[in-house]
Write a structure and sequence with these properties.
heterodimer, A: alpha/beta, Glutaredoxin, two-stranded antiparallel sheet, 5 helices, about 20% strand, B: alpha+beta, six-stranded antiparallel beta sheet, four-stranded antiparallel beta sheet, globular
């Protein structure tokens, strides 16, 4: 038995930490150079929402299914979780959107009812419906890989816009424009 | 005037750091050069000057000098004095000045106290410390000057973030900073030892007390920070895997591994390359954490003013220091000999497992913290939360803790499991019993494993004392036992909190009573209340546990007016077996008040355990320093006697 990272046998191993660090530098340099949110067009834009039905995630509020999204009204579907920090950052913007008359529906990812209740009590509850997506099935079906993400869905259940990352204060008018566009 | 003085002191300190680097370099590469003798005194004066500069900033905050931009932005004349004082480091510039102050003072203390290492290694170490300081001085002076004037002066300051107006803030950041900037000493020792090829037991012994000291502060800082977040944020949780929390956890994991591997190197002259590597990694994690938090490339609840040029500046510093040290490591590691060999079943073997598992956990936290960035580079944006961190870190930490039960009982070099097996019977039985009960109670896997393991550890951590005369047990051994016992206690608190917490979220009228986990909580009334710089609605609650006597609780919904912000002040009732946690929410349209109540059995053990871990560190440090002092005074006596006999 020798020590971990045994030295004499493989001197090139000693460059490994430096190599990993170079990778780290590259990654964060990239992160610094691209601070702005980029719009990524999802492959699902223009396609109908896949079939799904989620049980209620919060006490006293209905769950969410595809049938709820095809009644002729434009909606903002927000994929979120109580354990996600950017989701809390995003909450005031969702509240503003709701105040502007937008119907916001939620999909809670891998969440627990008691934690979700705390999150909603603290950050406000802009959602008219919240579905519990405990296995991230619907999330993946929507082409979303992270939280938070928001989808503008028109009255026929077609995805018109996908917003990746939290909605920032300055992006609220843009989201409202996308919703108005989807309503035409 | 005071601001000018502070800025001048900062410039002088920076100039002295440059001199320290230059003179130290000469001393290393031209042995016998007279400038080498300057290094220690210069390090001490540099530490003194930067401390004066920091004192000047604190003074400016205490008198609310509004001709200084930083004060005008972050303070307010109507703030209580304690928060004016603490406001000095509750912002980016001030906390960076605290950073270089800790670096300077740490270098000064090493220059003053460390006499064990060969002088050439000491010069290399102090030159390295000066080199790192120099970068941060440049960062302060060119990109984050805390003494920038505001002309004309503001008539009133903008105030301090109310979230930070808590006595906890006065002590939490400085404690944490002493901890993770103190690790810069380990970094410099490692660089100095590599430069002069002196990686051996002496290097480990010289470095150990400094690492131990920094680690104690880090442990206390993280524990206090966790408690602060718990009662100040009003979310009822004690750890959020927030990037800022991770930024303090990563250096702690590395420093914990470093402490253990340094003790192998000191006692057995093994794990040489590994120890040097960890010395570099620990402080690198401090710098990386600071960069991630300050550059604003990750979203965090701890918002610092974000500035991309600052991010680029710190990134350049990282590239120079971490990149330089890792290159030095790559070049020199192959010349460091392997050290003594040992069998897998030995004290060293146990400590290697400890090191690998801590490093694994460190990797998990680092990847999780960086993952959102990685995903963004790939074109998606994600937030990685507890569903990733909890099971993944447990994967490394739980096996490590199992080895912790056995490792301290093993002998150095080579041992047999059969020898210690009889001793392990009691902890194994305790673990089985606890695990069985947890399973019958229907607990989930992680909490059940945590409770079983904590039962094992509570007994096993005390076993190194078994069969020994307690009066002759050395302090560092007591330190180890207390720290490991603290781990068991904290683990039990964490498992209990996640398994047994009961929560109620209700809307009630005054006079109504709510039951939560054995408590009866009655809302009597809600009253307005005025504080020095806030107004609040305060709920008057009475709570009784299992029909016992009534305790009054007063959670508040506070509105600060400078700057305008709402916070909720939770109220806690602490019993020996847990805490009742109450938060007052909004008033609904029908006049009822939202109340959030948690009963958290044994949650306080988390922080008690953390403090015990730190106390273990203190005992070990006192033991080491005392034996060092005894040895050096004995050596002096011998040298004195020889001198007299020689005559």
């Amino acid at each position: 038995m020798t020590e971990p990272g045994s030295t004499r046998s493989s001197p090139w191993m000693m460059w490994l930490p430096a190599l990993i660090f170079v990778g780290f530098l590259g990654l964060v340099a990239y992160g610094l150079r691209n601070p702005a949110e980029r719009e990524v067009r999802s492959a699902l834009i223009g396609k109908p929402v896949p079939e799904f039905a989620l049980p209620p995630a919060a006490e006293g509020q209905p769950g969410l299914s595809r049938a709820d999204l095809v009644d002729g009204k434009v909606r903002l579907l927000n994929v979120f979780a109580s354990w996600c920090v950017p989701c809390a950052v995003e909450a005031p913007q969702l509240a503003r959107l709701k105040a502007e008359g937008v119907d916001v529906v939620g999909v809670a990812i891998r969440d627990r009812p008691e934690e979700l209740a705390v999150f909603l009590a603290r950050n406000g509850n802009p959602y008219s419906r919240i579905g519990a997506d405990n296995l991230s099935k619907v999330q993946f079906a929507l082409g979303s890989s992270g939280v938070p993400e928001s989808f503008v869905i028109d009255g026929k259940g077609v995805i018109r816009y996908q917003h990746i990352g939290e909605i920032r204060a300055e992006q609220v008018p843009m989201i409202l424009a996308k919703i108005a566009e989807a309503g035409q | 005037m005071i601001a000018n003085f502070g800025l001048a002191a900062l410039w002088f300190a920076a100039a002295l750091a440059a001199l320290q680097l230059f003179a130290g370099g000469l001393g290393v590469y031209r042995p016998g050069n007279p400038l080498g003798a300057l290094v220690r005194p210069v390090a001490m004066v540099q530490g003194g000057l930067v401390a004066l500069s920091f004192a000047a900033l604190i003074w400016l905050f205490c008198v609310t000098d509004l001709s200084v931009l930083l004060v005008a932005k972050n303070s307010h004349s109507a703030k209580p004095l304690l928060f004016k004082f603490a406001g000095a480091w509750g912002n980016h510039e001030g906390s960076m000045l605290l950073w270089v102050t800790v670096m300077g003072l740490a270098g000064a203390f090493v220059a003053l106290a460390e006499r064990r290492l060969p002088e050439r290694t000491m010069l290399a170490t102090l030159a390295s410390q000066a080199f790192v300081s120099l970068g941060f001085y440049a960062f302060l002076l060119f990109a984050s000057n805390p003494f920038t004037r505001l002309n004309p002066a503001a008539s009133e300051g903008q105030g301090l973030n109310p979230m930070l107006q808590d006595p906890g803030l006065a002590f939490h950041p400085p404690t944490l900073y002493v901890g993770y900037v103190g690790l810069s000493i380990a970094f410099s020792f490692a660089v100095g030892a590599m430069l002069t090829r002196e990686v051996g037991p002496l290097f480990a012994k010289a470095m150990r007390p400094w690492v131990l000291g920094a680690w104690i502060f880090l442990t206390v800082g993280i524990t206090a920070g966790s408690y602060w977040a718990y009662y100040e944020l009003g979310w009822g949780g004690w750890w959020f895997w927030d990037p800022v929390e991770n930024a303090s956890l990563m250096p702690w994991l590395a420093a914990t591994a470093l402490l253990h591997s340094a003790s192998v190197l000191a006692a057995r002259n093994a794990l040489r390359t590994w120890t040097v590597m960890l010395g570099v990694v620990a402080f690198s994690m401090s710098m990386i954490g600071t960069f991630l938090v300050r550059s604003g490339i990750l979203t965090s609840v701890h918002a610092f003013a974000v500035d991309p040029t600052r991010g680029a500046f710190i990134l350049a510093l990282l590239a120079i220091y971490i990149g330089g040290a890792l290159n030095l490591f790559a070049v020199r590691a192959s010349t460091i000999s392997e050290g003594e060999r040992f069998a897998l079943t030995s004290r060293e073997g146990g400590l290697v497992v400890n090191n690998l598992m801590l490093s694994g956990a460190l990797g998990i936290v680092l990847v999780g913290t960086l993952y959102p960035l990685l995903a963004e580079a790939m074109g998606t944006k994600v937030s990685v939360g507890p569903p990733y961190f909890n099971p993944m870190t447990a994967l490394f930490v739980l096996p490590m803790l199992l080895v912790l039960a056995v490792g301290p009982l093993l002998r150095w070099r080579r041992d047999r499991v059969a020898r210690v097996r009889p001793m392990l019977l009691a902890p194994a039985l305790a673990g089985l019993a606890a695990g069985l009960m947890a399973t019958i109670a229907g607990l989930k896997l992680l909490p059940a494993a945590g409770i079983a393991l904590s039962a094992v550890l509570v007994i096993a951590s005390l076993l190194p004392l078994h069969g020994r005369n307690l009066r002759t047990v050395k302090l560092p051994v007591w330190g180890m036992v207390v720290a490991h016992f603290g781990v068991a206690i904290a683990l039990f608190g964490m498992a209990s909190d996640s398994a047994f917490t009961r929560e109620r979220l209700v809307a009630v009228n005054p006079g109504q009573t709510v039951a939560v986990g054995g408590w009866q909580v009655t809302l009597k009334q809600v009253e307005p209340l005025a504080g020095p710089n806030w107004t609040a609605l305060q709920a008057d609650l009475t709570a009784s546990y299992l029909g016992g006597s009534e305790i009054a609780l007063h959670p508040q919904a506070r509105s600060f007016w400078a700057p305008p912000q709402q916070t909720s002040e939770s109220a806690l009732a602490t019993r020996w077996n847990g805490q009742l946690y109450a938060v007052l929410g909004d008033r609904s349209e029908d006049g009822r008040w939202q109340l959030r109540l948690w009963w958290k059995p044994f949650v306080t053990l988390i922080w008690l355990g953390g403090l015990l871990i730190a106390l273990g560190g203190v005992l070990a440090l006192v033991g080491r320093v005392m034996s060092d002092l005894r040895r050096s005074s004995a050596e002096r006596k011998i040298a004195y006697r020889r001198m007299r006999q020689g005559r």
